[in-house]
Every structure is written in structure tokens, then in C-alpha cells.
Amino acid sequence: MSDPRVGQSGLPRMPSGLNAAHLSRRELLLTGSLLSAAFVSAPGLAMASDRGIEAVPARYVSLAPSAFSDAMAANRRYLLALDPERLLHNFYWSAGLKADKPRYGGWESASIAGHTLGHWLSACSLTVANTGDPEVAAVLDRTLAEMAKIQRAEGDGYLGGTTAERGGQEVPGKVIFEEVRRGQIEATWALNGGWVPLYTYHKVLAGVIDAHLLAGNDRALPIALGLAAYLAGVLEPLSDAQIQKVLSVEHGGILESYAELNAITGQARWLRLAERLRHQAVVEPLIARRDTLDGLHANTQIPKIIGLARLYETSGKTEYRDAARFFHQTVVDHHSYVIGGNSEREHFGPPDQFGDRLTTATCEACNTYNMLKLTRRLFTWRPEGALFDYYERAQLNHILAHQRPDTGQFAYFMPLQAGAKRDYSTAENSFWCCVGSGMESHAKHADSIYWRDSASLYVNLFIPSTLDLPGGIKLVMETRYPESAEVAIRVDRAPAHPTALAIRCPGWAEGATITLNGRHLPVKVVDGYWRIARDWRAGDRIAVTLPSSLRAVALKGATDTYAFMSGPLVLASDLGPAAAAFDGAPPALLSQAAPIDALKPGGGLHHYSATSVLGQDQTLRPFYAMYDRRAAVYFPTFTPATWAEGGQAYLAAEAQRADLARRTIDVFHIGEMQPERDHDLEATGGAPDTFYGRHNRSIPQGAEVSFTMARRPGAAILQVTYWGDNVDRELAIEVDGVEIAVERRPGPGRGDWVVVDYPAPPTTLAQSKVKLIGRKNTSVVYGLAFIEPPRRSTS
Fold first, then answer.
1. Can you tell me the distance from the alpha carbon of 147 to that of 264, in angstroms, rounded to the nearest whole number?
2. Pairing of strands 608-611, 617-622
3. Whole-number Å distance between alpha carbons of 599 and 389
4. pLDDT per residue as tens digits for the range 175-203
5. CA 270, 242, 172 angle in degrees (round to 5)?
6. 642 touches 650 (CB < 8 A)
7. Do 747 and 777 contact (CB within 8 A), yes or no?
8. Partners of 367 in the beta sheet?
9. HEC profile for 736-785?
10. Are the beta carbons of 672 and 695 closer than 8 angstroms?
11. In the chain, where does the domain assigned CATH 2.60.120.260 lie?
């Protein structure tokens, strides 16, 4: 069942235009002449010429009190609470200098150490760019001074905090880059055994570039050029095939940084290297407009496309622009959940198939951070309101949701499984990638509200703020949006010449109205904007009303399962405090006809009530603010007829699912980078791979793969998944040093997944060591889980 108010992408349909009462003839002529000049070509054409639009620099924007200013304030407190000398610990050590302070825990004590410093530099630079904050500017300057000192000690431009293991000892990660320089390249999830060293190097380089571009710090550019020159010296001598092998490991946005340096310096060297840093396995299908994202690690890919977009801007090659647009549209329309985030367990799945992908590991925050960066880039080529409809959706429903406004800490995933809770970082012992990108996300809430080109000033986001352009217009936006449907924009200082204001009319805002000084404006919505051109006067006031219509958004690939949106906000049912367990069935709703019939207004704007099929009352309110609550976002929805037909089967399936969830101790998605690191996997042979969209790991004859998995006291079943045609092979399985099975797979095979249960010996420990030993030919394992045996009935 589909809702006619929802487009194929899950985004609401755009209104066709609005008519209103009279405007003065002169004002109408000014508006009409501007529209004629600005829209010579037909709107919506994929190849429309670029328009040269830019965000108004954040230094001209100040935020008024709101959830956004609260988020920035909490973020600033966290930035200043971090000690840059601790973030630099490994950098000192690598250069042979004394590190006076210990390194932080979590990922900063792993081989990826250093990535947090790069994000911190960018976040501080964004903060300075917005407010000129002297305290943040001072600590940023001191940190750059220390980085320059470390770089001088290295002597060749290198500056890094990654580590590697050689001979059982932890050594500076620079050894990996020197091996690559010599053509020694081993690439799996890691590069020469190091956890994504090029990714981390990019974060540092990008942070220093931001300190130059955004904070205007004079120390930054020489450091950036030294970093760039060192890495270029490593990569330039390699063959194209060798570079592509290096790029098969996650490398962040290194392409973007080199394209940016070309734009800053005009040096052709950086552009030549940027051209060689396109990852062809990902880029070429996109140029051909093919979606091959299924099974790919999502946040590995998005920065590549941001870099490709920047490369288009510096090289002028339009195939890069078109590939970036195709990727963005594909991810938004076919790989994103209702909150605007994407990925499950960090990976893209099959397009438009989310029915079995509602878990506790949906929507990695880094992905949305990067998708918003890409959205901004695309908007500079052509101003389409639909781009900021997506931006607003993701910013409100995911980015605001993933930061606790009290502590400033961050959630890695935004779990959309019914009853799930958000798990937040700690101040000194997490430092996941999403902590780093989170610092940036919440330093930039002022940077996308207002945009401009030679003809127009755009209002893209309805965040209470003041825009003060020196010698130009001064606007004050007053609103409690999205908690209110009303937005007021007041001209406090008029510009010297007639100026067009382009105000976004969200695609979901059916019945939206706009007035000037109390009079309705007869302007149509074109490309998502009301455009008003006139001689502005101080005191002019624009009022926008955006009715928050209720909409149902179908979960693609699932039958009659819906999320609900009120205006720009995703709604969720409150299933109790995060501290209390929830193992019940997702609340299923009963509607008479259309899905939205299940909800009734209650308790104010964006608040609704519903009754589940079992008669339980449900209260739905904005999802983003449920920081310490368990929630349900997607709801199976029945009519009386479909419930009578399938209700009992649904309840039985949910009872079985809930029982299995209670008995599941640990699930290991073998073949995926992060789960393999979390489970301390070590392998003497074989490699990760994907097959039919599922990750796996091969175990050749004579190879051993060992890892740890969580246990509970008592007996357990080790459940292993194979592909049915993977026959004529033997695999020995040990748990805590005891061989529990030898899996022999004679032919004939079957083209389906095979799940085998192996009883494991009881334990009193919190984890077990599992070892897989190849005995004959090559076995392939697609997943493992420890589960408790079924409880025996007492009846």
C-alpha cells in the first residue's frame, strides 16, 4: 500500500505553485523580470549550467537561542575540554620528540590514532569562522605551532599519529608509507597491516587546510603543503595499478584535499595527483549511471564522491559532476532511511530493500555528515530547493539526534530497530570516527542558512539567526521552527540596490503561504523557492507559514510498514527509558484505510496518539529529541481486514523473533572491517570478500582464523552460516581450545544459505576464543553467532 502524498524517493512531493492576493504592479514587475533572467533554461535539466552560488560566510551569521545554538555551545565546551597535546601524543613519538602527556583511550589508543586531531582542527576552524571565538582561536594556533615543530623534526613533511606493528612491536605508522613508496603494497581491510593510514592522513591534512581557509591561520598552509608533498612523494612514483590497489583501502577524502590544494595554490602538481586518486572501481560505474553500491562500506565511498565533485570544479570535467549528482540521487532516493541517514552495519544494501535492515546499527553518523557536505557542493552548481529539503531532513532528524545536548557526546549509529536506544561516546575513551565528524557537524550550524549569487540571496534553513552583511542587507530571522509553523524575516538594514530574496518552500509544505508586510504575495514556487525582488526598506517583514502536514513514508522492501513525518520531523513512539530493557514486538498500528488514519492529533504540534493492534496506547513525538528513550520509528500497519487475515501469523513471528533476540549472545559479521576488529580477528591465510551482497571470509586448507566472541555463563550454540554450493571441503571448529566439530560439506550443493548449529561447551567466562582451521580445500564462512539453547517448556 502506498501513500499518494509521498514521492518514490520517500521525500514529499513538491507543490505545483501557490497563488495569493495582490502585490503592487512595480513589485510584481521586479519579481517577474528577475525570474525571466534567472530561469532562461528550463528548470530541472540535469545538464543545466552551473550558477556560481556560495554559502554566505559564517562570520556574517549569528545564531539566536535554539536547539542549534545549544548544540554548538555543547560542542564548543567539548572542543575546549580536549587536550591537543594528548591528541598529539603519537605525533611527538613518531618524530622522536618527548610526549609529556598520555594519549587518549578508545580509537586514539589504536593504530588509527590521529584522525581525531584532524576533525578537531576542522571543528575549531569552523567555530572561529563563525564567531571569531578568541579562546578557540588561541588553542588552535598553539596546536598548529606544535604541529609545525613536529613536522620540522620529521624533516620531510610527514606529520602523523598512526601506528603499525612490526616484529610484535608498535612502531610509528610512517613505516607503512615508506613501504608503499618502495612498491610494497598489501591491501585488504588494512594497508600493510595498518588500520586505514591514508584515511587518517587525510583527516590531518583536511584539518590543516580548514585552519587556513576557515580560521585564516598563517601557520596552516605551510604545514598542509608539507603534508601534501610528503604523500605525493610516496604515491607519484607508483604505477596506476599500484595506486588503485592502495585506493582499495579506505582513504577518506584525500582526493578532495589535493583538488582543494590545487584551487588554493594553482599548482598543477596537485591536480595531476588528484586525477590519479580517483578510485576507478567506484567512479566508473557512477559515470555510467549504474548503482553498484550494494555491499560496499558506505562511508568509504561518500568522501570519494565529494572529492570527485571538487575535482570537477578544478578540472572542469563534466562527467565528474554528473557522476556526483547520480550518486547523491541514488543514495537519497534508494539507500536512505526516513531520517535521511543511510547504511546498516556501515554498509549499503540492495537498493529499495530495507525490510530486513532495521537493526541497532543503522545510519552511521559519518555517512550523513558526508552526505550533507556533498549536498552543499551540488547546491553550488544549481540552486534546487529539493537539495535543502534533504539537507534539512537529515540535519534535524539525524545530526541533531546524534549529539547529547547536555554533554556534547555522540552516537555512532542511529538505531531504527523498534525499542533500540542510542549509545553515546565517552569524553576520553571512545574517539570513534563519528565522534570526530560529530565535532564538525555541530560546529557548522550557521554555515548553510544563507546563500548568495550575483542576483539573489537565498534563505535555505529556518534557524533563528541574524545575517549582517557589511555594507549590505541585515536580516533577522525569528522563529521556533520546527516546533512552530511560523517563520518571520525582518529587514533591519536595507541594501543599496534592488535585491531578490529566494526563500525555500519545502516540498512537503502543502498550503504554505508567504506575506510581505501583511499582504499575500502572488509568487509561484519555482525550483523550490519563492523569489521576491524589490527595493527593500528597513522594517520590511516577510512572514512564512509552513503547515506541518502529516505524511506516511513507506519502508521500501517491506509490506505495509510505515514511518510518519509531521512537517520536517520524523515521529517516533516512546517505548520507555533507555536504562530499561525492551524485547517486545514493534508496535503495530490499526488504520481504517490510509496509513495516516492510524494517528490522531494530540498534545500540540508534531504530537500524535495511536492505538496498537493489541489496544495499547502509543504517543508519537519528534524522534530527534528522544535522547535517553527507546523508540519505534517504523510501524507495521494493518487494516481490520488485513489484521483478521494475518494478525495471528504476525504475532507468532514476532514472538519467535523476540525469543531469538533474547537468546542471542553475540553476532559476528565476519568479513566486515569493524566487526573483525571488534572481535580481535587474526588470520594466517584467506581474505574477506562479498557474495550476493553478504560479507564473508575464506579459510584455505592449512589456514587458521581465530577471534573472540561474547558468552554468557552456561551452554551455548555456535551458529555458522555457509553458502550451500560451497561443497567438497572440511573445516575444523574449536571453542576455547576444544574441537567441537569438523564441518564436512560433500556434494551435491544447493543454491541457498545453510545455517548449522554446533553445541559449544559450557563456560563461566564472558567470552570464548573461536578458531576455524581449514582442513580440505577452501571453506567460506558468512556469519557466526553464539545463542543460548532454547528454553525447555515446564508444562
1. 21
2. antiparallel
3. 24
4. 999 999 999 999 988 999 999 999 999 99
5. 80
6. no
7. no
8. none
9. CCEEEEEEECCCCCCCCEEEEEEEEEEECCCEEEEEEEEEECCEEECEEE
10. yes
11. 669-787
d(CA 657, CA 651): 10
pTM greater than 0.70 (yes/no): yes
- CATH 2.60.420 domain residues, the chain: 463-545
DSSP 677: H
DSSP letter string over 693-724?
TEEEEEE-TT-EEEEEEE--SEEEEEEEEEET
Give bridge partners of residue 738 from the DSSP assignment.
735
Peptide bond into 506 cis (omega under 30): no
pLDDT of res. 160: 98
CA 687 vs. chain centroid, Å, equals: 27
Pick from 496, 456, 458: nearest CA to 477: 458
Secondary structure in 3-state letters for 236-300? CCCCHHHHHHHHCCCCCCHHHHHHHHHHHHCCHHHHHHHHHCCCHHHHHHHHCCCCCCCCCEHHH
**What stretch of H or E contains 292?**
none
CA torsion sign, 469 to 475 to 476 to 481? Answer: negative
Q: Label residue 45 exposed, middle or buried (CB < 10 Å: 0-12, 13-18, 19+).
A: exposed
The Cα 696–Cα 784 span in angstroms is 10
CATH superfamily to which 669-787 belongs: Galactose-binding domain-like (2.60.120.260)
- Which helix (H) or strand (E) segment holds residue 104: the answer is none
DSSP annotation of 87 reads H
Name, in order, each residue with C-beta under 8 angstroms of 266's C-beta and a sequence gap of 6 or more. Answer: none
> Which residues is 720 bridged to in the sheet?
756, 784
Place of cell 525570474: 35
Query: d(Cα 649, Cα 611) in Å, to the nearest integer?
Result: 20
Q: How far apart are CA 496 and CA 500, in angstroms?
A: 12
Length of the chain: 795
User: 393 near 400, Cβ under 8 Å?
Assistant: no
| Cell numbers for 216 | 585564516
Cell of residue 741, nine digits: 566439530
Of residues 368, 388, 381, 323, the one with CA closest to residue 54: 381
Cα(first)–Cα(last) distance of the chain, in Å?
Answer: 42
Residue 229 CB-half CA count within 13 A? 12
What pLDDT score does 625 carry?
A: 97
The CATH architecture that domain 463-545 belongs to is Sandwich (2.60)
DSSP code for 176: H
pLDDT at 793: 57
Give me the DSSP letters along 319-365.
Answer: HHHHHHHHHHHHHHHHSB-TTS-B-BTTB--STT--TT--STTB-BH
Round to whole Å and give the CA distance between 309 and 457: 24
Give the separation between CA 449 and CA 408, rounded to whole angstroms. 22
Helices and strands in the chain: count of H runs, count of E runs: 20, 35
579: left (phi over 0), alpha (psi -120 to 50) or beta: alpha
Half-sphere exposure of 574 (CA within 13 A, CB side): 16
Q: What is the average per-residue pLDDT within 766-791?
A: 95
Dihedral sign from CA coordinates of 17, 23, 26, 27: negative
Percent with pLDDT over 90 in the chain = 83
pLDDT tens digits, 634-687: 999 999 999 999 999 988 988 888 888 889 999 999 998 889 999 999 999 998
Helix axes 220-235, 174-181, angle to 10 degrees: 40
Distance CA 282, CA 303 (A): 12
CA distance 159 to 181: 16
Are the beta carbons of 576 and 420 closer than 8 angstroms? no
pLDDT score of 21: 31
What is 362-402 written as a DSSP string? B-BHHHHHHHHHHHHHHHTTS--HHHHHHHHHHIIIIITTT
For 567-633, where are the E strands, in sequence order? 569-577, 589-590, 600-601, 608-611, 617-622, 629-632
